[in-house]
Structure formats: structure tokens, C-alpha cells
Amino acid sequence: MARPSYAERRKLQLREEIIDAAIEVFAESGYHDAGVADIAKRVGIGHSTFYRHFDNKRAILDEVINTVIERSTAALAAENAPEAANTLDEYREQVGRIGAALSEITSDLRMVRLILIEAASIDTGNAMRDDHLRSGDFFESEQYPDITFTSTDVTRDGDDWTITGDLTIKGNTHAVTLDVTRYGEFNDPMMGHRIAYGATTQINRKDFGLNFNAILDGRLVVSENVQIFIEGELVEQTQPGEAAAS
Q1: What is the CA radius of gyration of the chain?
Q2: Which end of the chain has fewer CB atoms < 10 Å from its terminal CB, N or C?
Q3: Domain coordinates of the chain in residue numbers?
Q4: Considering the domain 115-245 in this protein, what is its CATH number?
Q5: pLDDT tens digits, one per residue of 3-56
Q6: Over the range 118-137, which residues count as b (16 or more CB within 10 Å of their CB) and which as e?
Q7: How far apart, in Å, do the first and last CA atoms of the chain sit?
Q8: Which CATH class for the 6-70 domain?
């Protein structure tokens, strides 16, 4: 395979520099307050150069999220796969390595400071209800398409984590705390090496401008206190070179 030209290598390098700068800017200012100009200034390029690599701010956010996931899963090396441990002592050592790897990830707050939810992606199984939730009575998703969480502090206690940060809904920002639990991990030939996590918190929707009220039989149809449940997985990815070698 022919080696990429200098121009191609420089283009790829600049793209990575833009992504790194975006991670820093989003972590410092939050997605909503950060602008393309801030990212371009951090790299030392003009707007036109930025737009040769990314169509808009949302496009680079997708790359930021992908990069954060890739860097997180890269910390879970093959030696930490479930079948790598055959004895209790080996399992204990493996748990320690995984904990140390995740601690290293979370020690760089840029890696965990941004969680984004598309408000328009709401799916409750009822189209009429979903449209109402997207409307101005609730999320007003056309004007405020994204819900963001920017973490400010991360602490760990065994398999449990506490992540404190700023949640933004409809342009309203308030501090919330996520209680995070590591569910477990497994290695499957079809689904790959996975580690599952869950997080919970509770908010008052009126703090975030979700003020719609409807009364039925003398009671509010929608509670002011809303519980939030989040579930996710870290999936170890095979690097292109490794896949070719195998």
C-alpha cells in the first residue's frame, strides 16, 4: 500500500488537532456556549479551514463523542477480557487493572465532561405524546435540539461512581449529580468485549423551563419531579491494523 502523501498526512493531522481543540473547548465552555470561532482560534486556523474539515459545530461534536469513546475503550486491553482471568487471584488483578484504567480515563475530565442527548430523539411508543414532548410545552426541540451534561467532578467508590455536572435543557443550566454503577462485563464472540454501566438522578422539570401543567381529576398529569435513568456500554474496538493482522 502506497504511503499517504505529505499533504494527506498533514490534512489528517490537522483534523485530529481540530478534534482535540473541540474536546478542550466543549469541556471548558459547554457545547451550547462554545462556537466554531473558539475551536478555530484554539488551533490557530481560520473559519474556512475549519469548514473544509467539518460542516458545522454539530458535525465536530459527533467526532468528539466518537473520539472520547475510542479513547475510553482503548484502555480496556485484551489482557482485561473476561477469559484472560482463570483464577480468583488473576480475576482480582484484572479488576484492579480495569479500575486503574478507568481511573486514568476519568482523571482527564475532558474525557467524561460531555454527554449529549438529542431532544427530538424522544420515543415513548406513542407518536402523539412524543410530538407533544417535542413541542413548546416541553422540550421545544426545534429551538433547543440538544440536551447536554457537562461534568465538573468525578469520584469513585469501588464499582460505584459519582459524577457531578451541569445539565442544560432548553437553555436552562443547573447542577445535578449522577449516581453511576458498573453492572458488569462479558466477552461474546458475536457482540465483543463489553462493560455495562447505569446512572440515575432526579430533577425538577420546572427548573429547566418545562412548565406545562395539565390537571386530571384534581391531580397533575405530569409530575414536577422527574427521575432520569441512563444505561450504556463500553465496547472494545479492534484497531484496523490488528484486524488486518488477524
Answers
A1: 21
A2: N
A3: 6-70, 115-245
A4: 2.40.128.110
A5: 778 788 888 899 999 988 988 888 777 777 788 899 999 999 988 899 989 988
A6: ebeebeeeeeeeeebbbeee
A7: 18
A8: mainly alpha
